[in-house]
Design goal:
heterotetramer; A alpha/beta; B alpha/beta; C mainly alpha; D mainly alpha; B: 6-stranded parallel β-sheet; 11 helices; 14 strands; D: ABC transporter involved in vitamin B12 uptake, BtuC; disordered N terminus; binds adenosine-5'-triphosphate; binds magnesium ion
Chain lengths: 506, 333, 376, 326
């Protein structure tokens, strides 16, 4: 193997109490893909951000193309030719696609920005990665997937010799992921060095040449993908073996609890009809941007202007607000847990009690004893790991934050629980824990709706799957006739076979 | 902490000595920064020096009753010997002033009066009739006996200024001498030069045959004169009213304002301090008929309603304005 | 990229992509003129509406009070609008960075007084010198705002609320509460701002020049685009390696400098400097920006819009005296007009959510997309 | 700032304010012999009690990420309408009713416009700032309302037991009520939640719009109460009554440690800052510092309160990086 393009030697970084990285070393080569693997909080993103000048490491050396380098500002990293597609591509809603690509180094004439040139360059880049986007369209009109592709275009625009993908597929659908593989192959062919972070092993084995495993901020092992099996990797990253990530909870299925009929919204989705039964797990699969979140938000009363009928245990409800939905016995664990799920600066206690304050208060006065009791009961049930109920949620790891949100909703004693992307960006360990919880819920006789973009997940744990495409139901499957091909096809809109679309009322 | 440090520093800059020996008279004006009161202060200071009194000059930043009430309370707290004020609200100050009286503080009003129960004595710069008359006479002969005149008043809420305007309108309607004049409109300049300027401009545009603009506000007359000069209307539209020599010199020399009138604020301030001293020394009681010995101003009689009036307005024109201006500038620097 | 354009990364995709680009209306706008117009109209919608509104207003006023359209009063309008435009041009970039500058009026008063007193000691200076001095003095006061906001992370509204009082108080200390009036100001000092050397009032021309420069700065320089970026998404801006602090300092210096300039013009125009000068204009400035479609939340707003907003307010203020409305009603009218304009804006202010149902053309999966169409 | 969503716990901010307050008291008593005098101090509360009544709801409003700059205009409108009622010979209870009702309605209107238009409240209330005072001006014109019944003067001028002004007692009671409301009830908790993360609050089933409207209404109501006390104290209403209060009120709130970004702040904090500013300005007035110069000190204090701690952090970080260099 030739000289490594990038070599990192015993890099260390700590945040207050957390030692995010301790003397980590990795190598990346031109024309090869290095897979960076590790649990949530293992330090992958921190490593990336140290390589892109967003964080300054406390110790260690980075040598790039043979020379030692240090990045005080993100610009420094860009200058030597390192580009990254960050885990959450944060971009500029109000600027155009072209501007988002070239922000900070717009093409200029003598002094002034040359807009025509900028548009042209942007268009070429977009064509090269095969996206048909108008360089002039404001970013806010784009879907998450499109945003990822724009940030990829940005990475390419800087003519970087090394490109880092931090969990690029977390919010992408199968088809989009396939597309991304193609792009990465192309980059390999163009002699770029690639670093690829993911929690999904199929991808890692699909496109990585080398791997490096992080655990609690330390390098555990690295080598050639060819030399390892999935189980080896899992053992190395969690330090133990996991038996089953997708356990199928065996709860017996009862009568119909929730019926949604002819649900429509002027812009987001149209005539969605489905029903869930007691003890049943209903999966919603589809591409990102296919309108599942919107549909669920509407069921939970958060999307004004949506029409259609909702019946719960036979009784029909006019749900126009979250309060009403809770009253009706619906709980919604939103997709974006940081923004919608929890109030990060609040303590676990305050988060847990928020939806049920009215019921646990003495008259209108706060009742801390009752709040603690609440946490004891439901916090235990989802096994939150925390120093105490007074710990702010922002100090918890992603997985535990997710548990707080779920626990908070269980506290509302719901009949139906809607989980939107509950395992998005969650590592295998926490993932199986979440699935355990789902199992317990249905076992207790609740009904669960899971929105997920991960095929294995829906295939693994659902009794029925409804597929959405561009805001419409494109198919519905009973467990007996689950088939990956048919589901993916329906999701990408290939075969919309009418006979599949029954309200799923079963 | 740094806050306090800064405070100490700045207070040092602005805090005035607290000489306990001399008697302390507080001169409370309607609003700070108005030349009229600055002039009164000059006169008052002269008198204070002559009488060996310490003069405290203060006033609110905004022309509001709340501000003056707060200041009166703080003056009471300081146990000053006298409060001499130009009131910006006839009723609102009464409780505080009566409290002051109960604490043995002599209360004298000047320029603008309060309710009679709130003070012992009032020094009037002139009666409203006299004040209105000054500019009215000038306007009359500027207009050559007859013609349209527009009025620029101060803030719409200033009682006195409105009284003057009403009086002016009464004159033009009822007094034969002034029948020739027609007040076509009253505009409010709000003591803001840009507002006054626009209002004046509005007048000349609306009434092409407007002869004279009478401004019962020192900012108004300056702004109007400025407008007349900008629009090259000198000689066509003439400006007069109440103003201060130091602000009006070059409007007068330019011809925009051939003449204007004003009472002598310096004398008002001067007299007020003497009157207050007399009141405290109980050489006068403020009853009608009392004679106040007011230093260089000679003897001044107290009329009914415990009010002593200073007399006719003084008219400035190109012959006397310049030297008056220089005098004022030299005094107030 | 170190790659020849004729060998794209993804042969298969890119051809599909290209094919897509000709067909789908969404991306067509690049080369199809009607597409361009569509986008122009949709982006400039608010400005166009506002412009129409202003035109309508002028017509109505003209019907009611023809003399308002007389040349002299038009000059007067342009002068007043000029002041407001200059201040608004300073406020706009600040708002774009999610900031706010409440100290502008105080800076105006301070610089006005400073220069007025200066003109007493050295009356001979040419107007240019005064203008430069005003810019420098104002810029300095603005820099104090900017540096402390940027480096000590004080919320702008608090910082400028504080300096608003401080600067205003300093005017008083500087002048000892006294006024500087016409005859104490040299003719050189008063000459240019009062003049009409090129047909229209000089103040109007100054405002026009400022507008042009700010427009160029905001839309054709990296610094300008960075200002939009920082306001639109501070975190992303940091990742993009944009020097946030420099942007912040820059906008407050600019805001201060323009307020200072305005201070000189104002003082010279009305030939008087006093402590309360322009007091309370802060709100009018903000209102003008908002009416012009500048977002308080940062990241959105155009020079054209802001200027139209300034004219909107200036027209209302200057027209009321002509319309012979009861002076006591003017404030209430201004208030309801502001509210009306804000309400009219509120719609445009709402972000157009992406429309899943009608989102045709710009699917990332160009290839799959086509087949999907065929399949269905 | 005091810990996010904290209850009555005393944060570093409050401690800082106590320090400043002590500093100001020492400073003032050294500058003027008349400062440390019970009657003077208690009388000085007249100058801020009314504003402080508006500070309380304004704090809640800002904690919930809103703001109302129209409060001074509401005071003016309420005062003028009371004056009108008085002229029509209304009795004291009616006058109080008119004042409170006017405030309440004005506040409701603010809230309704803000929530329906979805425009930032500072923008909307800048509009109503002109509108409300405009209406007041249109009614009172250049005149003044002075014909208030004698019994009406109680609120502004009466001393409870000849030692404590009734105004101050009312303010003290209001402070306690607001402290309980914000720190001990579910409403307070929800207000913090809304201010810290409105979206999450909505997803948790909190009726955000209802809360916002209610807070605006409460602010209006308290402004109405302030108007009652002020009018009663002055016994005279003119169109420029209560000018400039909005900024003084907001200054007190912010200096009290209420984060303009929402979600932080305590009633203890704003109470301390009320007394801080109140005593500072009173002390300065005792040495006859003009009001406009006092504003310099208040402004500096406002800036210093946040700048000084941050400056510490900044320098620390700076030297830290310097060490890394070498
Ligand atoms: N800005 C920060 N401040 C404090 N702690 C941080 C910060 N960023 C990361 N951490 C901590 O450092 C550790 C590593 O975080 P990092 O984001 O690198 O994990 P990761 O491997 O990217 O996890 P994931 O797979 O969820 O993205 C975690 O414990 C995290 O809590
Ligand atoms: N153009 C966009 N602007 C803002 N947010 C977007 C956009 N596109 C997608 N998102 C966010 O990304 C997520 C996925 O998009 P969306 O929810 O609309 O589709 P979906 O069918 O729910 O897909 P999924 O639930 O798998 O994410 C949601 O959180 C949505 O808010
Ligand atoms: Mg990560
Ligand atoms: Mg979603």
């Amino acid at each position: 193997m030739s000289e490594p393009l990038l070599e990192v030697r015993n890099l260390s970084k700590r945040f207050g109490g957390v030692q995010a990285l301790s003397s980590v070393g990795i190598k990346a080569y031109r024309g090869r893909v290095l897979g960076l693997i590790g649990e949530n909080g293992a330090g992958k993103s921190t490593l990336v951000k140290s390589l892109t000048g967003n964080y300054q490491p406390d110790a260690g050396t980075i040598s790039f193309a043979g020379a030692d380098v240090r990045f005080d500002r993100p610009q420094d990293a860009a200058d030597v030719g390192i580009a990254a597609i960050q885990q959450e591509p944060s971009m500029f809603e109000d600027l155009t696609v072209a501007e988002n690509i070239f922000v900070g180094n717009q093409p200029r004439g003598r002094r002034l920005i040359n807009w025509r040139e900028m548009r042209a360059k942007a268009r070429d880049l977009l064509v090269e990665i095969g996206v048909s986007l108008d360089p002039d369209s404001p970013l806010r009109e784009l879907s998450v997937a499109e945003r990822h592709l724009v940030s990829l275009a940005k990475a390419l625009s800087s003519d970087a010799s090394m490109i880092i993908f931090d969990e690029p597929t977390a919010s992408l659908s199968q088809a989009e992921i396939q597309h991304l593989y193609g792009i990465i192959e192309g980059l390999k062919a163009a002699e770029r060095a690639i670093v690829f972070i993911s929690h999904k092993f199929d991808e890692i084995f699909r496109i990585c040449d080398d791997y490096a495993v992080l655990r609690d901020g330390e390098m555990v092992q690295d080598g050639l993908i060819a030399d390892v099996t999935e189980d080896d990797l899992i053992r190395q990253m969690v330090g133990r073996t996991l038996n089953d990530i997708y356990p199928k909870a065996a709860a017996e299925i009862g009568e119909t609890v929730l019926e949604v009929e002819g649900f429509s919204h002027p812009t987001e989705f149209a005539d969605v009809s489905f029903s869930v039964r007691r003890g049943e797990i209903l999966g919603f699969y589809g591409l990102v941007g296919s309108g599942r979140t919107e549909t669920m938000e509407a069921v939970f009363g958060l999307k004004p202007g949506s029409s259609g009928e909702i019946r719960i245990e036979g009784r029909s409800w006019q749900i126009n607000s979250a309060q009403k939905a809770m009253e009706a016995g619906i709980a919604y664990v939103p997709e974006d847990r940081q923004r919608h799920g929890a109030i990060l600066p609040f303590s676990i206690r305050k988060n847990m009690s928020l939806p049920v304050l009215g019921t646990i208060a003495r008259a209108i006065f706060l009742n801390q004893r009752a709040e603690d009791a609440l946490c004891d009961e439901f916090g235990q049930r989802v096994q939150i790991k925390a120093s105490g109920w007074s710990q702010p949620v922002e100090e918890l790891s992603g997985g535990n934050q997710q548990k707080v949100v779920i626990g908070k909703w269980l506290a509302t004693q719901p009949k139906i629980v809607i989980l939107d992307e509950p395992t998005k960006g969650v590592d295998v360990g926490s993932k199986s824990a979440v699935h355990q919880n789902v199992g317990d819920l249905v076992a207790k006789g609740l009904s669960v709706i899971i929105v997920s973009s991960e095929l294995e997940e829906v295939l693994g744990i659902c009794d029925r799957i409804i597929v959405m495409h561009k805001g419409r139901m494109s198919a519905a499957f009973e467990r007996k006739d689950f088939s990956s091909e048919a589901i993916v096809a329906a999701a990408t809109g290939y075969a919309i076979a009418a006979d599949h679309v029954d309200g799923g009322a079963g | 902490a740094a806050g306090v440090a800064a405070l100490v520093g700045l207070s040092a800059l602005t805090s005035h000595g607290l000489a306990q020996d001399k008697p302390r008279y507080a001169m409370l004006v309607r609003v700070l920064g108005n030349t009229a009161f600055e002039l009164a202060r000059v006169g008052a200071q002269q008198a204070a020096d002559e009488l060996g009194v310490e003069l405290i000059y203060t006033g609110p930043t905004e022309n509001s009753a709340e501000g003056q009430v707060a200041l009166i309370d703080s003056l009471i707290a300081q146990r000053v010997n006298a409060i001499m004020l130009s009131a910006n609200d006839a009723t609102a100050l009464t409780p505080s002033l009566q409290k002051a009286a109960r604490r043995g503080i002599a209360v004298v009003t000047w320029d603008q009066d309060t309710e009679a129960t709130a003070r012992k004595l009032h020094i009037a710069s002139a009666t409203n009739a006299l004040i209105t008359l000054g500019p009215a006479k000038i306007a009359l002969d500027l207009a050559g006996g007859e013609g349209k005149i527009g009025v620029i008043s101060g803030p719409a809420n200033s009682t006195t200024q409105n009284e003057w305007v009403d009086e002016l309108i009464r004159l033009t309607k009822e007094e034969d001498a002034f029948k020739g004049l027609e007040v076509v409109e009253v505009a409010y300049g709000d003591e803001r030069s840009d507002k006054a300027y626009n209002e004046a401009l509005g007048l000349v545009n609306k009434y092409p045959d407007l002869k004279v603009i009478v401004a019962y506000s020192s900012i108004g007359i300056a702004a109007a004169s400025q407008m007349v000069r900008d629009q090259n209307l000198i000689g066509k539209v003439q400006v007069t009213g109440l103003g201060f020599p130091n602000e009006m010199v070059d409007h007068v020399t330019s011809g925009a304002t051939p003449a204007f009138a004003i009472w002598n604020m310096i004398d008002v301030g001067y007299t007020t301090v003497y009157a207050t001293k007399a009141l405290i020394d109980e050489t006068v009681t403020g009853a009608s008929g009392d004679m106040i010995a007011a230093g260089r101003m000679g003897e001044i009689a107290v009329g009914d309603n415990n009010t002593a009036v200073m007399g006719e307005l003084f008219v400035y024109n190109k012959d006397n304005v310049a030297e008056a201006a220089d005098l004022i500038t030299s005094l107030s620097k | 990229m170190r790659r020849r354009p004729d060998t794209p990364l993804l042969p298969i995709m890119s051809t599909a992509g290209r094919a897509e680009m000709q067909t789908t209306g969404h991306s067509a706008s690049i080369n199809a003129p009607e597409g361009v117009n569509r986008r122009l109209v949709q982006n400039q919608r608010r400005e166009i509406i506002l412009f129409a509104l202003i035109a309508l207003m002028i017509v109505l006023i003209g019907l009611r009070a023809p003399q308002y359209l007389a040349l002299t009063s038009v000059d007067n309008l342009l002068t007043n609008a000029g002041f407001l435009v200059i201040l608004v041009l300073g406020q706009l970039p600040v708002l774009l960075t999610r900031g706010i500058d409440l100290s502008q009026a105080a800076v105006l008063a301070f610089c006005g007084m400073l220069l007025a007193m200066l003109s007493q000691v050295m009356p001979g200076l040419p107007a240019v010198a005064y203008i430069l001095l005003a810019l420098v003095a104002g810029g300095a006061l603005g820099a104090i705002n900017g540096v402390i906001i940027a480096f000590l992370k004080i919320p702008p509204i608090i910082m400028t609320l504080g300096t608003m009082s401080v600067y205003r108080g300093l005017v008083y200390i500087l002048s000892d509460g006294a006024w500087v009036s016409s005859h104490e100001l040299s003719d050189r000092f008063k000459g240019f701002p009062g003049g009409q050397d090129f047909l229209l009032p000089n103040i109007f021309w100054v405002a026009a020049i400022c507008a042009f420069l700010v427009w160029i700065g905001l839309s054709y320089t990296r610094a300008g685009r960075n200002i939009y970026a920082v306001g639109g998404n501070p975190i992303a801006a940091r990742y993009a390696g944009i020097a946030q602090r420099r942007c912040e300092v820059l906008v407050y210096v600019l805001s201060g400098a323009l307020a200072g300039l305005c201070g000189y013009l104002w003082t010279a125009r009305f030939a008087i400097a006093y402590t309360q000068a322009a007091e309370g204009r802060e709100f009018a400035i903000i209102a003008a920006c908002v009416i012009g479609g500048v977002s308080i939340a940062g990241g959105r707003g155009s020079v054209v819009g802001a200027i139209l907003g300034a004219f909107f307010i200036a027209i209302v203020e200057t027209a009321l005296p002509f319309l012979r409305v009861n002076p006591f009603l003017q404030l209430a009218i201004i208030g309801s007009v502001i509210l009306f304009a804000v309400a009219a804006n509120a719609r445009a202010e709402r972000r157009p959510g992406r429309q899943i149902l009608r989102r045709g053309g710009n699917e990332p999966m160009a290839g799959g997309q086509k087949q999907a169409e065929r399949a269905s | 700032m005091s810990g996010r969503g904290t209850g009555l716990r005393i944060g570093s901010w409050e401690i800082g304010l106590v320090g400043l307050l002590i500093g100001v008291v020492i400073l003032n008593s050294s500058l003027s012999p008349y400062f440390l005098d019970y009657y003077n101090l208690i009388d000085s509360t007249f100058t801020f009690s009314e504003k402080a009544l508006i500070v309380l709801p304004m704090a809640l409003l800002i904690i919930a990420r809103d703001i109302d700059v129209s409060v001074a205009s509401i005071v003016a409108l309420a005062a003028v309408l009371m004056g009108v009622a008085a002229d029509m010979g209304a009795a004291t209870p009616v006058l109080v009713g008119v004042g409170l009702l006017t405030g309440l309605v004005a506040g409701l209107v603010n809230g309704a416009i803000v929530t329906t238009l979805g425009v930032h409240s500072i923008v909307v209330t800048i509009g109503t700032l002109s509108l409300y005072r405009g209406i007041a001006v249109a009614i009172v014109g250049d005149g003044a309302y002075t014909s208030f019944p004698a019994s009406f003067a109680v609120f502004g001028r009466h001393y409870v037991g000849d030692v404590v002004p009734l105004e101050f007692v009312i303010y003290a009671v209001a402070t306690i009520l607001f402290a309980v409301l914000l720190h001990a009830t579910i409403f307070g908790r929800r207000i913090y939640a809304i201010g810290t993360n409105p979206e999450a609050a909505q997803y948790s089933g909190i009726a955000i719009s209802k809360y916002r409207i209610a807070l605006f209404a409460l602010t209006g109501l308290m402004a109405g109460l302030a108007a009652v006390l002020l009018t009663s104290r002055l016994g005279s209403v003119r169109l420029n009554i209560a000018t400039g209060w909005e900024l003084q009120v907001i200054t007190m709130v912010v200096l009290g440690g209420v984060g303009i970004a929402g979600g932080t702040g305590t009633i203890l904090g704003v109470t301390l800052s009320v007394f801080l500013i109140g005593f500072l300005t009173f002390g300065l007035s005792l040495i006859n510092v003009p009001g406009i110069v006092m504003n310099i000190y208040v402004g500096l204090m406002l800036i210093a309160a946040i700048a000084v701690p941050n400056a510490g952090k900044f320098l620390a970080a700076y030297f830290d990086s310097k060490r890394k260099e070498s």
